[in-house]
Design a protein that fits this description.
Layout (H helix, E strand, L loop, with lengths): L2 H22 L5 H25 L33 H24 L4 H36 L10
């Protein structure tokens, strides 16, 4: 499997996973989050396809990519019990974890890649995943600060938002 195929498959599998989760959680707030994530994965796949057409790269990578499992291959459903209303924080943490696994996945492949154009592609993907990681990291911090503020509103000084 070549770089582009592997990256596109990972993004398509991510899109599929997030769409399935959105369908299973239509009755709660996580629906919108999973829908957003599915759209982002779809955008990534399109960007990779455009890069594939634009760059000239040997389709045979110097490493065996079949040994790698991307994060979405082993992820279980995040479907919640009907009686349980999910905390948005749990959903954000799941998204953060998936972005981290994607970053780690691409960074591992980057260390084993010698082709300069292949490295460009992988670095691009790492930057995309890091930007999403920062988004969810910020959301989590914001949610946690709100909980801390309500819990300890009259005590001590807090960092400004």
């Amino acid at each position: 499997m070549e770089y582009f195929e592997m990256a596109i498959k990972m993004e398509v599998d991510g899109e599929k996973f997030y769409k399935e989760q959105a369908n299973k959680n239509q009755d709660n707030a996580t629906y919108q989050i999973f829908t957003y994530l599915a759209q982002e994965e779809q955008k990534h796949a399109r960007l990779i396809e455009k890069m594939q057409k634009k760059l000239s790269i040997d389709p045979t990578p110097e490493i065996d990519l079949t040994e790698y499992k991307h994060p979405f291959q082993e992820l279980k459903d995040f479907q919640l019990d009907i009686k349980t209303i999910p905390e948005q924080l749990d959903v954000y943490r799941l998204a953060l974890e998936m972005e981290k696994k994607s970053i780690d996945f691409y960074q591992d492949i980057l260390t084993k890649t010698k082709n300069p154009e292949g490295k460009k592609i992988i670095n691009f993907l790492i930057l995309q995943e890091k930007s999403h990681y920062k988004i969810f990291e910020g959301i989590i911090e914001h949610v946690l600060r709100a909980e801390e503020w309500v819990e300890d509103a009259e005590f001590g000084l807090r960092k400004p938002y």
